[in-house]
Each structure stands twice: as C-alpha cells, then as structure tokens.
Amino acid sequence: MASKQYSDAAAALEGLLFDGMHICAGGFGLCGIPERLIDAIRDAGTKNLTIASNNAGIDGEGLGKLLRTRQVKKMISSYVGENKEFERQYLAGELEVEFCPQGTLAERCRAGGAGIPGFYTKTGVGTAVAEGKEVKNFDGQDYILERGIFADLAIIKGWKADESGNLIFRKTARNFNAPMATAAKICVAEVEEIVPVGSLDPDAIHLPGIYVKRMIVGAPYDKKIEFRTVRPREAA
Fold this sequence. Notes:
Largest sheet: 7 strands, parallel
Distance between the termini: 64 Å
CATH superfamily: Glutaconate Coenzyme A-transferase
Structural class: alpha/beta
Radius of gyration: 19 Å
Strand content: 25-35%
CATH architecture: 3-Layer(aba) Sandwich
Low-confidence stretches: none
Mean pLDDT: 94
CATH topology: Glutaconate Coenzyme A-transferase
Helix content: 10-25%
Strand order of the largest sheet: 4-3-2-1-8-11-13
Shape: globular
C-alpha cells in the first residue's frame, strides 16, 4: 500500500486545490483546527473558496487567515461572533454567508458523507433559517428540508494516527472533524503523531483510515486560547 504520509502541508495538498472549490474544515473556534493545511491553502493563493466550517476562527488565526487574504467567497457557518473581519466583510457585502444552526451543520456534513442528499428537521422552523426551504408536515409537526453537504476537499486535525490513516481525536478537538472528514471527495488530515499500524486499540479509533487519503505530522503546535477568561488577582 502506498504511503499516506506526506512531508508537509503543501505536498499533501498538491494537485487538489483549484479556484472556486468547496472545502469542509474541521475544528471549533481554535480547537482542533487544521492549522498547517490552512496556512498551505493561504500560501497557494487558491481563491473564490466556499468553506463549510462551524466558524471562521478569529481575526488572523484559523480560517480568519483566509478571510484576511480575501480567498473566501462564501462561508457556511453557525457562529461568527469572535471574528470582526468576518463581520465586516459580510456587512459590506464582500462575503456570502449561509448561516446554519450548529447541530444542523454537523448533520448536513454527516448526511453528505453517508450519501444522504437531504433530511427534514424541526430546527429553524418559523425563523429566517427556513426561508426558501421546503416545509413538510409529519404527525402534525412542521419540518424543513436541509441539504446534505459534500465538498471537494476536507481538511481536518487529529491527535494520533497510524500509518494506514486510522485516527484518534483528542477530547474537544473531536468537534466537527469526524463528520467533515467523510463529507468530501478526499480528506487530508494533519496529526500530532503517526504510529505504526497495530499500535492503536481498534476500539479507540474515531475515524477509520479508509476516509483519510493523505496526512502530515503538523506538530509541534502552539496551543492558542481563543478567549482568555481569568479572575482578578486578590489584593495581597
């Protein structure tokens, strides 16, 4: 079997990037985001991107880097509260935004990865989320039709993988990475460590290696804190 491991992010993305493509990006805020792959996309200059991600990082970090370089045409997201550049571009009409409830976004990606083109949900009924969408009544309750998401490329961040791509996420960093990994034609993963096949407990695998086509070791990482909250020091 050909090796799935590449020397760096640029090599792992070689031949995969093109203008106008659709990307699913894992992570939540700055937790579990594919930092090295985002940097490589920025450096490649790929533009007019549509990106499905819970949010767009913060100003100058995570997907915020691609917003700053104006490489993103449209975001499909559930939360934008910590990114002022995201807000500015949206209000100025420079960025298309498709707001999607958080659970619905996760399910749209999971459904897309499972080959399900659409599903009905109560979330968003009677709100702006339902505008322009089909409404159907089941057992006296209204539901709206949401489309599954299936992208050209998924970029994700894992904790540990074996050489065949079986992957484990660490705690909260599991957020959105697993469903995003399945919701694209090809998935590229960056991880903190790659170990020999057989080193990982099969019952502990969060993402089977069949979904991971290429991977890199991105470590070491600088563990950034998105919003630091501390108590005031008590007087001596």
